[in-house]
């Protein structure tokens, strides 16, 4: 059980690393800003490695990323108005998958996911990352 707890904790920290990797990776990457299109334009498919949805002020609010710096991991992050990740949905190449709800400092406080064995887990964490409640 302790080993499974450690795996899920690593998953939560992996979410932080992946979201941080996105921000670091996009600092030097090329991007394309979407243009305003007529209302009757329909797109059946858009292919890209990263997609950022911005609000009316141009601030990133949703990020979808498969940046190579993330080592094959995929992250969808929902950001607050200060560009800090608050919710992260991730899938990792090691088989761990999850959703993390982060506090205003970007630290995971709720982690829900599966470990590499497919076992479902739910953890509520304190500000230091210690488990307050767990459902395994």
Can you walk through the features of this model?
With 136 residues, the protein is α+β, with helices and mostly antiparallel strands. The chain has a single domain, classed as Outer Surface Protein A, domain 3 (Alpha-Beta Complex). It contains one helix and eight strands, in the order αββββββββ. The protein has an eight-stranded antiparallel beta sheet with strand order 1-2-3-4-5-6-7-8, with helices on one face. The longest helix is centred in the N-terminal third of the chain and has 26 residues. The N and C termini lie close together (9 Å). The model has no long low-confidence stretch (mean pLDDT 79).
The count of β-strands is 8
Fraction of residues in β-strands: 35-45%
CATH architecture: Alpha-Beta Complex
Which word captures the global form? globular
How is the CATH topology named? Outer Surface Protein A, domain 3
Ranges where pLDDT stays below 50 over 5 or more residues in a row are none
Q: In order across it, which strands form the biggest sheet?
A: 1-2-3-4-5-6-7-8
Order of helices and strands: HEEEEEEEE
Overall pLDDT metric: 79
How much is the radius of gyration in Å? Answer: 16 Å
Set out the fold topology:
Elements: H1 2-27, E1 50-54, E2 60-65, E3 74-79, E4 85-91, E5 97-102, E6 108-114, E7 120-125, E8 131-135
Antiparallel strand pairs: 1-2, 2-3, 3-4, 4-5, 5-6, 6-7, 7-8
Supply database-style keywords.
136 residues; alpha+beta; Outer Surface Protein A, domain 3; 1 helix
What is this entry, summarized?
The protein has one helix spanning 2-27, and strands at residues 50-54, 60-65, 74-79, 85-91, 97-102, 108-114, 120-125, 131-135. The protein has 136 residues and is an alpha+beta fold.
